[in-house]
Amino acid sequence: MIKILHKIAFLLNSLVAFALLLSYLLPYVSPRMFPLLSVLSLAVPVLILVNVFFLVYWVLQFKRKMLLSLIVLLLGISHVTSLYKIRGKSVETHTDVLSMLSYNVHSFNRFDWIDSDRIPQDISAFVKEQQPDVFCAQEFYNNPSIDFSQFKHKYEYFNHNSRELALVIFSNYPFLQKGSLNFEDTANNVIFADIVTATDTLRIYNVHLQSHKIGSMTDKLAKTDSQKLLKRIQVSFKKQQLQAEQLIAHMQTSPYKNIVMGDFNNSAYSYVYDKIKSQGLQDAFKEAGSGFGKTFEFRLFPARIDFILVPTTTEVVGFTNYEHRYSDHYPICAKFKP
């Protein structure tokens, strides 16, 4: 009986190991060409965790079968470190540090999905407490209870397809130029602003790539038609690729160092993340973060779909994932020396 169970376990192990191995190709596979394969990027955290489970299981059984998951995990060590970092960095001894905060505020609980009537005030108080130099907000809604008056400069842009929700860049530094990429046929968008710091001029991109329009809760997902959901996600991945290409083309015309931050609606294992990051940028979480780096309230696995990407020429000295549940996303903050 035990031998049969071990055979079944190894069969399952082989399937998830192969799926994880296949996922290593995702950064190089265009969603426009293979949209179905791109969907696998959302499942990579689960595949990693299941392979870790099988590795531990076979080790405890003193079986050489442990080599399967061990080799696959080692081959994708960068994927593993994208999911979990053992320890981060401290910024206590650093001076001349810039802090960048990104937060999808989910319209400040406009539709009462959280059982609290103080979400706008809680988010306002949180941002004031953190005192970032730059704050990029996605799904911003002008609630009368919010207060970000501590920032000297603000750029707010309502996409032509979304008259109520905006992308906003708050800054303690003045703007030289600002603008919008104006994606077509979507409420998602990217805006940018050039800020003048004491030592440099930086271009900040506030990103909100194409949404999948799926809820964060497991029970809602269970009620969703799987075929319709799959088709919807494939379409959104194609749109994300077009949006990423438009963003990259704009970044390449920038006369300044670029910083890209916001809600990618995709993982660190995706084609769009890899292409944007390849523009001379580094993932601040991978440089200085710790733990799972979870940024989205998704009960099935720790999802990291919000990012702060800074130039590779800068030194990232700190990164924080906050656990404040004021939205379906969690805020993130990076600190670096420009």
What does this protein look like?
With 338 residues, the chain is α+β, with helices and mostly antiparallel strands. Helices cover 35% and strands 23% of the residues. It is built from eleven helices and twelve strands. It has helices at 2-23, 35-38, 44-60, 66-75, 77-83, 106-109, 119-130, 218-222, 226-251, 271-277, 284-288; strands at residues 98-104, 134-140, 153-158, 166-171, 175-180, 189-196, 201-208, 257-263, 281-283, 306-311, 315-321, 332-337. The strands form two sheets. A six-stranded mixed beta sheet has the order 3-4-2-1-12-11. Strands 5-6-7-8-10-9 form a six-stranded mixed beta sheet. Strand 3 and strand 4 (166-171) form a beta hairpin. Helix 1 runs parallel beside helix 4 and helix 3 packs antiparallel against helix 4 (66-75). The longest helix is centred in the last third of the chain and has 26 residues, at 226-251. It is globular. It starts with a helix and ends with a strand. Residues 217-222 have low confidence and may be disordered.
